[in-house]
UniProtKB/TrEMBL annotation:
PANTHER family: IMPORT ATP-BINDING PROTEIN, LIPOPROTEIN-RELEASING SYSTEM ATP-BINDING PROTEIN LOLD
Any one cellular-component term (Gene Ontology): plasma membrane
Protein's name according to its UniProt entry: Putative ABC transport system ATP-binding protein
Residues forming coiled coils: none
Top-level taxon: Bacteria
Similarity comment text for this entry: Belongs to the ABC transporter superfamily.
Start and end residues of each ABC transporter domain: 5-222
Matching PROSITE patterns: ABC_TRANSPORTER_2
SMART domains: AAA
GO molecular function, a single term: transmembrane transporter activity
Gene3D superfamilies found in the cross-reference section: P-loop containing nucleotide triphosphate hydrolases (3.40.50.300)
Organism: Modestobacter roseus
Lineage: Bacteria, Bacillati, Actinomycetota, Actinomycetes, Geodermatophilales
Keywords for this protein: ATP-binding, Nucleotide-binding
């Protein structure tokens, strides 16, 4: 399955009463299938807001968002885990599922639990989580929970992978293993966009986009 995406003139304001925050001020970006793009920028520059639009959690006030290939014509909020997988900045694990069941959640929703069991086990082992499989999120460290969120996103080899600072809570060794897996997803054909402050992640990416004050200021497509 292939599916790059393109955003043009994306604008998003957050309103609270009379106050309005321009989180995105007209973002243009494109990520092709097979490409790993890193999204960098200071805290508050709009990275998470952009990912929230791309995954359909939020809708843009203006601008166009289109998915390509097998995802052409689809709305982001209608895409499932095999099509679009997200690693949220706040992780979003299900509290009353074990870590293994959190990783398997996309397979459970797709109805392919048995088929996807071996890949889930391999991801857990690869991220140093196999001995924690039966624990619940509140019994795991933040870094361990984050690796579960990345494994969940990778499980079904999604066409689009969006990850919000996926190495933020990792030591260098674990961060490198997560980045190897993200790099492999792109090499297998996924369109990958990773918001990150991790300079090693930038070096693993094909391209780096810089954000500032709600705009992509450098590295935007010409
Ligand atoms: N729900 C909200 N209501 C009001 N303002 C918001 C909301 N969510 C985000 N913002 C504001 O929008 C701007 C962009 O926030 P965003 O979370 O996208 O930044 P970020 O680049 O992801 O930052 P960080 O590196 O800290 O994660 C910030 O000024 C933030 O305060
Ligand atoms: Mg953020």
């Amino acid at each position: 399955m292939s599916g790059g995406f393109r955003g043009t003139g994306l604008v998003k304001h957050y309103r609270r009463g009379a106050e309005s925050v321009a989180a995105l001020a007209g973002v243009d970006l494109a990520v092709a299938a097979g490409e790993f793009v890193a999204l960098v920028g200071p805290s508050g520059s709009g990275k998470s807001t952009l990912l929230a639009l791309l995954c359909g959690w939020e809708t843009a006030d203006a601008g166009q968002l289109t998915y390509a290939g097998d995802l052409a014509g689809r709305r982001p909020d209608a895409l499932g885990w095999p099509e679009l997988a997200l690693v949220p900045q706040a992780l979003g694990l299900v509290a009353d599922l074990s870590l293994a069941d959190n990783v398997l959640l996309p397979a459970r929703l797709r109805g392919t639990l048995a088929d996807d069991g071996p890949r889930a086990a391999a991801l857990l082992a690869g991220f140093g989580l196999d001995h924690l499989a039966d624990r619940y999120p509140h019994q795991a460290s933040l870094g361990e929970q984050q690796r579960v969120a990345v494994a969940r996103a990778l499980l079904l080899r999604p066409a689009v992978l969006l990850a919000d600072e996926p190495t933020a809570h990792q030591d260098r060794g674990h961060a490198d293993r997560l980045l190897d897996a993200v790099r492999a997803a792109a090499d297998d054909g996924a369109a990958v966009l990773v918001a990150t402050h991790d300079e090693i992640a930038w070096s693993r990416a094909d391209r780096v986009l810089s954000m500032r004050d709600g705009l992509v200021t450098a590295g935007a497509p010409v």
